[in-house]
Specification:
The complex is a heterodimer.
Chain A: H1 3-52, H2 56-60, H3 76-84, H4 87-118, H5 124-135, H6 139-152, H7 159-165, H8 167-183, H9 187-196, H10 200-211, H11 213-229, H12 232-237, H13 246-254, E1 255-256, E2 259-260, H14 262-297
Antiparallel strand pairs in A: 1-2
Helix pairs in contact in A: 1-14, 3-14, 4-5, 4-7, 4-8, 4-11, 4-13, 5-8, 8-11, 8-14, 9-10, 11-14, 13-14
Chain B: E1 4-13, E2 16-26, E3 31-35, H1 42-50, E4 57-62, E5 65-66, E6 77-80, H2 92-102, H3 107-121, H4 136-149, E7 154-158, H5 166-182, E8 186-191, H6 194-200, E9 203-208, E10 211-216, H7 218-223, H8 228-233, E11 240-249, E12 252-256, E13 262-264, H9 267-272, E14 280-285, E15 290-291, E16 303-313, E17 318-324, E18 327-333, E19 344-349, E20 355-357
Helix pairs in contact in B: 2-3, 2-4, 3-4
Classes of the chains: A mainly alpha, B alpha+beta.
Chain lengths: ~300, ~375
């Protein structure tokens, strides 16, 4: 090979090497930031776990370091929480409310999104935008007018009132995700189904729901998270312990005036956080796929 | 199996008229291809037959019955789409049997029909696969299978080969023709590819701007186009269309295409075009009729010298492009006799196959 040819190839090699170096630096930088982020977000759960498995005496003792366990691990906080408080009632109430809200939300938003996303009718696009706009109104603004409604239907201080009001938070967003998802399904698919002899309901149940399953699961997770973690509405509408849900119940029953039962509060928070954690762990991929599809096509 | 008829069918979207009063009769078992450039209304026409678009005016008949207000499922038609439109969550078998299941066919009958269609299309091995595990050609076969199992009155194809690569397209084209010969059913096929139209059709319907330009057999369409549009659209490379003046020359006629070149018409053509003498017309001649001078049908008066601009060797023949009075003209010559670009070559025009077109009406005279 002549020197000229070698010289011509040299820049190519240099370029490739620098590309490799660039990539290495990009990876190192992103790992540094990822580790920082992980530490930052794992500190609160760590603190919760550490506090929940300490004895009350150790929590109260100012001399010990709060970040480590000095007197040994104990599960007393969990035992007392589950046996001597209303925690299990809160848990049951929350579970009932969440299951109902997720079911109602899915029925309403899947049907709504199918109609708005697939069946062209007069005003459908304005209606779709309108639904999304309702999502932008925060619950802190809505709870006063909703109080009147919940009271009027006789559901004040009943967790069934939550089943009525939570969908105002979940339905708009879920419908909006589903509209985006349904719109991303090629139009020929419903035309093929129409020609094959499917009616609109069959088209929805046999074609759209199975094809849009990632989007539906994403919407379900969203509805689940919202109703599991809602705070403002139960705070405003529920006041007796037998009707209370986890978020508000844990706080109100374990904080007596200025006495904070820190150990039990943390134990309660951990148990309350377990179901969403499990669901996220199993369905995370669906959640991300569903949200991004909705985001790009909506 | 049924006769399909369109009577003065119009489709209007707001103020755009996509289809302007077309009428068409398709006899039982005929393979009709609607062809035209994009936006000519061919797909809209097909979708109106399918019932996916409403008819603005006019009537559509399938099997002698007006179907204007019937939903697609009651028209007993099957359609194959450009992007296959297979249900992604179902296996090939489920895709093909979906329509039969909805129509509550017994299980054994469904299996029998799917197996039969799978054998015709050679996809028996693929029935358990989901669409994403199939190649483009296999998907299109499954889509055709879905149509075949229904045993419908009419098959509708909406550009079914456009998503396939060139080689597969040719292969599937033959396949479609073979399937039609085995499963005799009235077929309406839409394409923008005139080669597909010519090779597949019993009759071709050429559409342009929402109207039918001509309905004819492929041979007829090629040799006797009725309008300038059809003359220019059918055939590849396209027919040369050159401005000309028809000059009287005693008893004969000459067609003058430039100051330098004027060609004498053969006797039969002279008699035919006699009344047009002296007019400015458009002269149409296909590339295969502009060749190097050949021994048998040689007429020295029809020869002319020209400088070649572009030379495209195709293997079996060579395309030569040259300019006449600012207009590009294509000839088809023997590879052995072709000259290089920039060189002068002697060419011969066979005017027995010429067409003359009225530039005002666009009609072939």
């Amino acid at each position: 090979m002549s020197t000229a040819a070698l010289a011509a190839r040299a820049p190519g090699i240099g370029f490739r090497a620098s590309l490799k170096r660039n990539r290495r630096w990009a990876l190192i930088t992103s790992y540094i930031f990822l580790i920082l982020f992980a530490i930052f977000f794992l500190i609160p759960p760590y603190y919760m776990v550490v506090t929940a498995i300490k004895s009350d005496a150790e929590v109260a003792r100012m001399a010990t370091n709060p970040w480590i366990i000095a007197d040994g691990v104990t599960f007393d906080q969990f035992k007392i929480l589950l046996t001597q408080t209303d925690f299990l009632i809160f848990f049951k109430n929350t579970a009932i409310v969440t299951v109902c809200v997720v079911a109602i939300t899915m029925v309403v938003s899947v049907l709504g999104a199918f109609a708005l996303g697939r069946m062209k009718f007069w005003g459908s696009s304005i209606l779709a935008t309108g639904i999304f706009l309702t999502y932008l109104v925060p619950d802190t603004l809505l709870f006063i007018p909703l109080f009147q409604i919940v009271k009027a239907v006789g559901l004040l201080n009943s967790y069934w009132g939550m089943v009525l009001v939570y969908p105002t938070l979940t339905v708009p967003f879920c419908t909006w995700i589903m509209i985006g998802y349904f719109q991303s399904i090629p139009k020929e698919l419903d035309e093929a189904a129409l020609i094959d002899g499917a009616g609109h309901l069959q088209m929805l149940t046999k074609i759209f729901i199975p094809v849009a399953l990632p989007g539906i699961i994403a919407a379900m997770i969203f509805a689940f998270t919202v109703s599991w973690a809602a705070f403002v509405y139960p705070m405003a509408f529920l006041y007796s312990a037998d009707q209370q849900v986890l978020t508000v119940g844990t706080v109100t029953s374990l904080i007596r005036a200025d006495v904070y039962k820190w150990g039990m509060l943390m134990a309660g928070a951990l148990v309350a956080a377990a179901p969403p954690l499990v669901i996220y762990a199993f369905l995370m991929d669906y959640y991300i796929a569903g949200l991004t599809a909705g985001a790009t096509k909506g | 199996m049924a006769v399909v008829a369109l009577r003065n069918v119009v489709k209007r979207y707001d103020d755009v008229e996509a289809v302007r009063s077309i009428s068409l009769d398709i006899p039982d078992n005929e393979f009709v291809v609607l062809v035209g450039p994009s936006g000519c209304g061919k797909s809209t026409t097909l979708r109106m037959i399918a019932g996916l678009e409403e008819v603005t005016a006019g009537d559509i008949y399938i099997g002698g019955e007006v179907v204007n207000d019937l939903p697609p499922k009651d028209r007993d038609i099957a359609m194959v789409f450009q992007n296959y439109a297979l249900y992604p969550h179902m296996s090939a078998f489920e895709n093909m049997s979906f329509g039969l299941k909805l129509r509550k066919f017994p299980k054994e009958e469904i299996k029998k029909r799917v197996d039969h269609a799978a054998r015709i299309l050679d996809i028996t091995e693929l029935l358990d696969r989901k669409p994403k595990a199939l190649s483009g050609g296999q998907r299109q076969r499954v889509a055709m299978g879905r149509a075949i199992v229904r045993n419908p009155k009419v098959f509708l194809f909406d550009e079914p080969l456009s998503n396939l690569d060139a080689k597969l397209r040719v292969q599937m084209r033959t396949e479609i023709k073979r399937v039609h010969q085995m499963v005799k059913t009235t077929t309406v096929y839409v394409t923008h590819d005139q080669v597909e139209a010519m090779t597949l059709a019993d009759r071709v319907v050429v559409m342009n701007g929402g109207v039918i330009e001509q309905i004819a057999t492929p041979q007829d369409l090629y040799h006797h186009p009725r309008t300038r549009f059809v003359a220019g659209f059918i055939g590849s490379p396209a027919m040369n269309l050159i401005r000309c003046r028809l000059e009287g020359n005693g008893t004969g006629l000459r067609v003058r295409i430039s100051d330098r070149i004027s060609l004498p018409l053969p006797e039969a053509q002279s008699a035919r075009y006699h009344a047009m003498a002296g007019k400015e017309l458009v002269f149409g001649l296909r590339p295969e009729h502009i060749t190097e001078p050949r021994r048998n049908d040689r007429d020295p008066n029809c020869e002319f010298d020209t400088v070649l601009d572009v030379v495209e060797p195709m293997g079996m023949e060579t395309m030569v492009y040259f300019t006449v009075d600012g207009q590009e003209v294509c000839g088809r010559v023997d590879p052995g006799s072709a000259k290089g670009p920039g060189e002068t070559m002697r060419l011969h025009a066979n005017l027995n196959h010429m067409h003359l077109i009225d530039p005002q009406t666009g009609l072939v005279l």
